Amino acid sequence: AAAIAVPPANALVKGNAPPPKSKGSDKLKCTNVEECQAQAELRADEERRLAEENEVPASVTAGGTRYRDLEDGNTDRDARLVKDGDEVQLYYKVLKLGKRSYDGISGEGTVVFSRGYGLEDDEKKPFDKSFDTFVGSNSNIPALNDALLGMTVGQVRRFAVLPQKGWRRPTAACDGGPGGKGTGGEIRTDYVVVPTATMVEQEACFDMTKQPFPTAYAQQRRMAQRFDQSLIMEVQVASIK
Asked: For 33, which of 140, 164, 187, 227 is 20 to 30 Å away at the CA?
């Protein structure tokens, strides 16, 4: 008699497959505070190195202000460019440098004061108010006059505000912050010690006439504590009048 071929049996097993074996965590484990701090510093250094490698290099204006464009504005060939003497309408943020701001303009910063973003008590919504000024005006901080040149409507630019180009009076007695010609001492920020800087007199050196300037008392006091440190400013050109 001919042999009958019997197909192999396929067992149907219901339920979930067993979980894969754990290969262990790739993260280093620390056993004490010192080890945890050391590992955190190593991770921060690695993140900073990667950020530096991937970051677009900062540009420098003719006046020496370092900046980076965050958003393009009007890119038409005949688009109007901001020039000295123009009246402009601006939205801006003045920022305290964050811990990862390795070059003075990168990373996330904390807003000290602003105009046009709906962040202030007297603003009901974004773009409710603006800062209007003439480019090149002596009432403006020098860094703003410098950074605005060549911008177009809608463009957003972030730039460094060194104390001597911001709200610090240009006198020899006050010239001790970052980039200044002080005679010693140090200024501490949240993450940097500037060894050649000198602590300056707050009342004598803080120029509260320079624009832009906060209107709220609390923000004015914050600025009084930071005018002799490097800051960041983000500005958007709303219109050129």
From this structure: 187
Integer Cα distance of 160 and 95 in angstroms:
10
Measured distance CA(125)–CA(155) in Å, rounded: 20
Cβ atoms of residues 239 and 82 within 8 Å: no
Distance CA 52, CA 142 (A): 28
DSSP lists the bridge partners of residue 224 as: none
Report the distance separating Cα 127 and Cα 147, nearest Å: 21
For residue range 174-183, what is the model confidence (pLDDT) as tens digits?
A: 875 455 555 4
In this prediction the pTM is 0.70
The answer to whether residue 33 scores a pLDDT higher than 70 is yes
Quickly tell me which residue has 């001790």 as its tokens: 176
Tokens standing for residue 126: 């974004």
Give the span between the Cα atoms of 117 and 228, in whole angstroms: 25
CB 65 within 8 A of CB 146: yes
CA-nearest of 82, 57, 52, 75 to 67 is: 57
- CA–CA gap between residue 191 and residue 102 (Å, rounded): 10
